[in-house]
Every structure is written in C-alpha cells, then in structure tokens.
Amino acid sequence: MEKGDHCFNFREGEATITLKDVAILTHLPIDGKPVCVSDHPPEDRDGMPGWVHFIHSHLGVKVPVKGCVDATDRMPPMRKHQVSITWLTNYFRDHYESHPLTEESPEDEKERYARVYLIGMIGGVFFSKKSSNLLSCGWLRIIFSSWEEMVEYSWASACLAMIYHNLSNV
Known about the structure:
The chain has 170 residues and is mainly α.
C-alpha cells in the first residue's frame, strides 16, 4: 500500500483504519466468504412486487409501496429496491408493544424480531448511508439466510470496505 492510500487526515494527524481495528471494535469475523449484495429482485408473486413478497414471506409484513408516507422519513416505506429501516423498526416496535415477546412466544416470532434487529444493525450501523435510512433489499437475502450461513461471511472486511468508501467520499 502506498503512503496516503486509505489514510485520512484528522486534527490529530494522519490515521488509517485496519481490518484488525474493525474486528476488535465490532467483534465481527475476518475470515469467510465475501459479502456480495445484489439488488436483482425476486419474481413478482401473488400480485406483489418481488421484494415486497420477499419481506412479507419472511417477516409477515406487507410493506406499502405507494400512497403511504412515513412521518419521520417523508418517503414511502419501500422505494425501488430499498426498504425504510425506520418504517420497519417502528412497525415492529409498535407490534412489540402490543404483543411483547415472552419465553412462551413462538420461535418464528422470536426469529422475526432478531432479523429486524439485524436489519437495523446492518443498515443503520455497520453499512449505513448517512444520506438516507434506506437499506438495499439485496441485504435481505443475506439477513434471511440461515443463521449458519450468515456466520460464514467476512463481515469485518465488508465493514472496513464501507468505512473506506464513506471516508473517501468525505
């Protein structure tokens, strides 16, 4: 790596962020498959656009595409191949208040809440775009894969790439 590659000038001086830094701070795995996201939508089914059907089949939520605007987002919950993280987490927060999880809650209900939490972490923390709170639906293919498959990815490498991308844009 040449001097200046992925180095950023801060008030304290020049600094770089390494893969080891990301792994230590986030506890994300370094080794594994690369994280690759494709926005190519699934086939339309049951009269619903592909991504809307995909989300509905995994979370039991029919995300409105048109005519519904989230008061915090000022945009529809679903836009092209992106879903509003705020709309989805607010939906589940409201649902949770009226149907709190307990030890006796069905496993599929617990899993749905865990997947929504992951959507918030991936789209709002590790791979966020500060210009919006929209998550590319391509991430959903990974988030809704099996738990065993999800841990096979090199999440720290993808997170570092996103950090470099965002810092380079600044």
